[in-house]
Write a structure and sequence with these properties.
about 500 residues; alpha/beta; Rossmann fold; GMP Synthetase, Chain A, domain 3; five-stranded antiparallel β-sheet; four-stranded parallel β-sheet; 18 strands
Length: about 500
């Protein structure tokens, strides 16, 4: 049996569960919440918050306040030191570190139960994708494998930091099937030198003319990988079979690199395509016109939150994976079936991995419904806010303004001589003054920004051409030990 077939067949049961949950989201989410509370009722956190007495969502909200990572960090540090039954009753099999660009280095505990939560979202999505686009499973897959940029380590209590493989998200029973479909073998991730990792990855990819599926987080990761190929061709070519070397030479024959020659059967690229990733997803679509871009759902280190479904705009909540609350502009929490079309919400999660009413600081917008199930798109980081003189510009607001631009940009606060914003353009031909003026005008939709501009507290936006600044920021983050595949460009940069 092929690896793809094994994965799709394994998706049957979780897909039925997800479809049943979609018919009654309220009941499904309440059942999941009760399961999580029951499982962890005898932990220190569970006893302190009376998990055994909580019968309704209202009870849960009254007992457990919304919290951020800093509230959980003392508990997580004790778990990392080896203390049991602090937040979760199940043993912690590993920790992962968050990989966002706004912050990092936050340890997230993984148990068998919350890894099963990821599986409950990933498998139905893959099966649905294969049903909609059968050619996606006709060849091999490239699943983002970043180089190791940090020393392998364990916590004080001996728990590993980092899962052994992405196959862990699918379960031990599917590990062989997952590895069998990969174009780039997992051991490439063990290469510590980034340059050597890049050459090895490109050689494996160029060798596979049957590449049919690419799954990465940020589209910039695959864009930058492909962009390195022309300069690295002389190093890649000696590692190739004669047919692959010939295809590489043909793809490089014209002034513009031709990805359709290398990967004629590439059917689908799954990546972030909302918010600040929109422009990069468009670039990837232009570079690989033979493939469809499948916008990724909201999968975070902490939990599966939404997943693509049936090829429609927006992703559906991961109802069988994570207990989800959506906080409206007035601060009121809503369940999935209570979300209104056209409104934006901040995401709060409760997971089998010991995070209770955890504020993700991610903002989503409801773009419609399938019956009782909302369809959600990612807008940006609700907690990423710039406030020079009281204007309070959020990343989600800025991302919405710049999403239609043909080049990547970032808004950067500048303190003096008069406080103002710079807009950095990742392109030397981007008409800095014209783009800066249009962004300045659009920012006036924020009344505080308009007032600050009108009274002279803020100067006009200044356009600055900084070609390549996105890639350079990624290099800095990688050098600091981050995972390259996790980096997400943000439209608002608070540090230079």
């Amino acid at each position: 049996m092929s690896g793809w077939r094994q994965l799709i067949e394994a998706a049957a049961a979780p897909t039925r569960a997800l479809l049943a949950a979609a018919r009654d989201p309220e009941a499904a989410q309440l059942a999941l919440l009760r399961c999580i509370l029951t499982q962890n009722g005898e932990t220190e956190f569970g006893r302190a918050h009376g998990f055994s007495r909580l019968a309704t969502v209202a009870d849960y909200r009254a007992a457990v306040p919304i919290a951020g990572y800093e509230d959980f960090q003392p508990f997580i540090e004790r778990i990392a030191a080896g203390e049991p039954a602090v937040l979760i009753d199940d043993p912690v099999v590993a920790f992962e570190e968050t990989g966002g660009t706004a912050s990092g280095g936050k340890l997230v505990p993984y148990t068998a139960a919350n890894l099963a939560g990821f599986r409950a979202a990933i498998l139905p999505w893959l099966a649905d994708l294969a049903r909609r686009r059968p050619d996606v499973s006709a060849g091999c897959a490239y699943v983002s494998i970043s180089p190791v940029t940090r020393e392998p380590r364990r916590t004080v209590g001996g728990i590993p930091v980092g899962l052994a493989s992405d196959a862990a998200f699918l379960g031990a029973d599917l590990a062989h099937a997952f590895v069998s479909i990969l174009a780039v073998p997992p051991d490439v991730a063990a290469i510590r030198d980034v340059g050597e990792w890049r050459i090895a990855t490109l050689a494996h990819l160029v060798e596979r003319d049957d590449l049919s599926f690419v799954s990465v987080w940020s589209p910039t990761f695959f864009l930058e990988l492909i962009a390195a190929l022309p300069a690295a061709a002389d190093l890649v070519a000696p590692r190739l079979s004669p047919p692959a070397a010939a295809r590489l030479a043909k793809a490089m024959r014209h002034q513009r690199f031709d990805a359709t020659v290398l990967w004629p059967r590439l059917d689908t690229i799954s990546c972030w395509a909302d918010g600040s990733s929109t422009i990069f997803a468009r670039r990837l679509a232009a570079l690989c016109p033979q493939a469809a871009i499948e916008p990724k759902g909201l999968f975070a280190t902490e939990a599966a939150i939404t997943l693509p479904w049936r090829g429609r705009t927006g992703a559906i909540p991961a109802l069988t994976s994570t207990f989800l609350e959506f906080i409206d502009d007035g601060g009121s929490p809503r369940l999935a079936h209570e979300v209104r079309a056209g409104a934006s919400y901040r995401v709060v999660i409760t997971t089998p991995g010991g995070l209770y009413r955890y504020d993700m600081s991610d903002q989503v917008r409801c773009v419609g419904h399938d019956g009782l199930v909302p369809r959600l798109t990612f807008e940006g980081r609700a907690a990423l806010v710039s406030d020079l003189v009281g204007e309070k510009l959020t990343e989600a607001f800025v991302a919405g303004i710049v999403a239609g631009l043909p080049i990547a940009v970032a808004l950067v606060p500048a303190a003096g001589p008069k406080p103002h914003y710079e807009v950095w353009l990742d392109d030397i031909d981007g008409r800095p003054e014209e783009i800066a003026a249009s962004i300045d005008a659009a920012l006036r939709a924020n009344p505080q920004y308009a007032y600050a501009r009108d009274v002279g507290q803020l100067g006009a936006v200044v356009g600055i051409a900084r070609p390549g600044f996105v890639a350079r920021r990624h290099e800095v983050l990688a050098a600091a030990g981050g995972r390259m595949g996790d980096f997400k460009h943000t439209s608002l940069l608070l540090s230079r």
